[in-house]
Amino acid sequence: MKTRLLHLLLVLVSLLLVACGQQQTAAPAANGPANSTPDTGNAAAPASTSGDDQSIVVYTALEDDQLERYLDVFKADHPEINVELVRDSTGIITAKLLAEKDNPQADVIWGLAATSLLVADGEGLLEPYAPEGLDRINPKFRDPNDPPTWVGIDAWMSAFCVNTIELNNNNLPMPESWADLVKPEYKGFIVMPNPNSSGTGFLSVSSFLQLMGEEKGWEYMDALHENIAQYTHSGSKPCKMAGAGEFPIGISFGYRGIIQKEDGEPIETVFPSEGSGWDLEANALVKKDTIKPSAKTFLDWAIGDDSMAQYAQSFAIVTAETDQPVPEGFPKDPLAQLIDNDFQWAAENREAILAEWLERYDSKSEPEE
Amino acid sequence: MASTTTSSSAAPTVPDAVIKQRVRQSVTTEDWLIRGLIVLAGLWLLVIIFLPLYSIIYRSLTDKAGNLIWFANYATYFQNPALYGSLYNSIFIATVSTIISVLIGFLFSYAVTRTAMVGKPIFRRIVMLPLYMPSLIHAIALIYLFGNQGFVTKGFFGYFRENWGFDPSFDIGLYGPIGIIIGEVLFCFPQAIIILIVALSLTDARLYEASTALRASRIRTFFTVTVPSIKYGLISAAFVCFTLAFTDFGIPKVVGGDFNVLATDIYKQVIGQQNFQMGATVSILLLVPTVIAFAVDRIVQRRQMSLVNARAVPLHPQPNPLLDGVMLLFCMIITLIVLAMLGTAIFASLVNVWPYDFTLTLKHYDFGRVGGGGFNAYWNSVRMSAYTAVFGTVILFFSAYLIEKGKQLQWTRSIIYFISILPVALPGMVIGLAYIFFFNQPSWDMAGLTIPNPFNVLYGTMTILVIANIVHYYTVPFLTATTALKQMDPEFESVSASMSVPFYKTFWRVTLPVCLPAVLEIAMYYFVSAMVTVSAVIFLYAPSLKLASVAVVNMDDAGDTAAAAAMSVFIIVTSIGVRVLYELVTWGITRQTQAWKKR
User: What is the tens place of the pLDDT at every residue in B447-462?
Assistant: First the structure.
């Protein structure tokens, strides 16, 4: 009987060992030749790579379909550095970053909304760093402090996606401005992101307030609320819904609609005549006990001429001069489309604005029959 | 006869004291072993469930700077005008979804276990398909069927109007409570079926023979024998459905429109505003129904009688043309709905541009074109799911056994039971964040001492993903195992003990074989759930361990709905493949171990 007991214990112990041992087996197995993404490398999980100087963990919210193109350029310039990429939507990446506050995993943040970086900076997560070539960056698109905590790479602006087929089916004119959207004929045809769930939603709300002044801004949103079919939880969702014809007009951001049109959806992206709210996608260095030199190399590269030229293929506005033409579908003079956006004001008043919005539009949220 | 139905007290009277004495003498080492194992199970749950959860509880009591402010967050939340709306909506959705899910689940389980209708094995396999589908696919299928441009809403795009002269178009008003309830029911009723099939399979035919001999009508038999015997299973199923519908945010997020529920409130706080303290506060509120359910369970459990006693005889349903026919029709309708969902998902992956260009194409299956990790992510998912199935099932069934059958440390077992049913009330997002808070902490400062966190090494590994999955999907298999174990007569143990057979031998020779169908079902449940899981692992996967289910979400995020559907089809096909493989492998084993069911 004693031997039986021993066996049982042995089995249990080995189970535990196997469970713990998986972490060692996990990494090599992930290195199969079939890797279609450039970010899987030889290093094990980030927890065990702290000693490896040539491997950096990069958190990004840049669109998945652009990343491979960018990283190919980086690989060519810096074959010795292994980039491990964690890509997700702005909200998830920001939440992950803040949750890991006490033991940061990322070395570099690449292309995350400047508003999110302001939050991270407020929590003391970022290390100021002046990347090489900073003088080429438009001062409007970087942290004014010296050295800056964050440096923008591109700007994205609000726009609405309009489904031309559904518009024709309902005999509606093409809306051209924010003012058009409150016309009664669009009642029940518009979707927009909920500012409490989505950064894009908050961007729209804060731009109405900055564009029209607080009082007029809220009046405008009262009128818009009458036409809204629903508030979505994701910023790209309204445009996707417009593309699938679920609701003909989706307030979202410019890049989204232009990509969908390329995929063959009957979408027209409208940049409203009053101007667009905007935010930056920006880079930052994460504050850690040991900051790797390769993290800085990456940040230098990420605002270099080669990368800027790449960004300019996707975005109308990049933060340094390039010789790339403005991509198809964007306004000819994209900078003129931007309203005066005061990030600091928006960040400081965010809670109050969201509370007001909740009170006005969210507490009576029974769906309209 | 009476003595066989009333379980444990029914042991032959004379040698009772003798047995007890002998037991006490011979099994002291064994008692210690059981105690040790119970404590081990408790410690394991402490680390993987309770401590991470504690980090969430603690956060709900602090402000953003980390200062302890006790219940101020709760006060703030209760002053929020939107709260009562969300709370009411959540209770409403969960109640309606539970009633429908348990009703469908019960009728279906009854049909495939207690009638003589044809096609039972096929029906019970098809009906599990919703669990194989990533939640995004549920949403896509619902929208493509019932959305403003859906097949049903648009009357199949004029096909019937043109060919048969009638227009079946019908708008159910998907966005809002109707959409959420349909989605939750599709998500919940297969889980109810898992528990209820186990409950209905384990029974004693002699009860029915007695009932017939006493000339009780079928309906009377149903209410006096069938329902009481599966009471525990029914309550567990209702508890699981209620909690899942109460805490799920995937479906309300996509088809809920502006219908707020508590789970979407968490999403707004955590993802929208990075307000972890408020998110934690709402998460704790989500636990309330589970705590109530635990109390209810403790009361009900005392009255549960075990049906499979040592002399049990398996039930073989007799043909009944009317009942069989009605049940067949019912099962066909349910499986048809399930297959329509699957068909829509497959169609979505093949069509060029929904809903404007229905040309079929295979281009969406070229994952090199889109981001998300492609086939590499797919293999990671398969590996993760396999680990989850193997380790999850072994650990879970054994700890369920210890709680149910280990007659030691009553209080510890109660606590372990409570911790075991908590995970179902935790949205995946909360588990993900709790795991970051707990496992990513390099050390704790307590009373001036720095205590290193021994579990920190797990962060960013495959192991933590597997553990997160085991926890996330702990409750349904746990209740399945408990249901199966509860219905076994304690006499098995007492007889073994009286004959000085050590408990592990009884476990290996009797308990495990009798419960094998439930055990295999648990392994399968773990596998398919790990294949589709998103909400917990999205916060935890390491850069080199991308997952297929996360890729699905990311592809959809990047606007590639069709590619997301294509990857989902891969996931579904894999799960079906594993299911078929497992059926083939276990066919022989099951026949052998379930031989006792034959007469």
Answer: 778 888 889 999 989 9
